[in-house]
Amino acid sequence: MDIKVNKNTVIVFDLDDTLYNELDYLKSAYKAIAKSLEPNHWKSLYSKMFSLYRCKINVFGFLADAYKTEMGPLIDMYRNHQPDIHLFDGVIAVFDAIKAKNGKIGIVTDGRSKTQRAKLKSLNILSYLDTIIVSEEIGTEKPSKVNFKAIEKALPASKYYYIADNLKKDFVAPNALGWKSVALIDNGKNIHFESHAYMNPENLAQNFIIDFNDFNII
Description:
- By secondary structure, the protein is of the alpha/beta class.
- It has nine helices and eight strands.
- The protein has helices at 22-37, 42-54, 59-66, 71-80, 91-100, 113-123, 135-138, 146-154, 172-176, and strands spanning 2-3, 9-13, 104-109, 131-134, 159-164, 180-184, 207-209, 216-217.
- The strands form two sheets. A six-stranded parallel beta sheet has the order 4-3-2-5-6-7, sandwiched between helices. It has a two-stranded parallel ribbon with strand order 1-8.
- The termini are close together.
């Protein structure tokens, strides 16, 4: 997919399951929790936690019962640990190409400020980003137009793109605002995988890609 970029182009990305797999954040958090509860035997506990998750059994309920503790601190650890996560292949090459053409890069993501910003720091991409919109900080979540209008206010331009993964909520607002929308197809590890239920024109992205190697920044 060709994208022509110049100083009047803003390319905005979702974060979770767009720049990296959110499942890897979950794994990272589970490992941190397992290490805190069983420092010497954390791998077997982590294995059980991940199996419970895959079987849709409440992991935090299991831990609270097994270790006679409250769920609150465990959930806080999940949200506030320093994540060990990694970008999808091709992301940095795309970012470098955008910057080489004097384009701007933004993030619009739903979630808690501390959690989402820790992810961005761990991914080591803060130096590329011209603005970051986190739902908790702005007070609205996608599909609200407010989050995308905040991008337009922060980065005035003639052309906007939004690249994301979740058809349920990601593309409703940018489509309505006249942005170009691009969906990254689920690689089989996405947390949200109900795209088949949102194939109506309001929710659909205008373009689909398999991975970041499908982009050609010109």
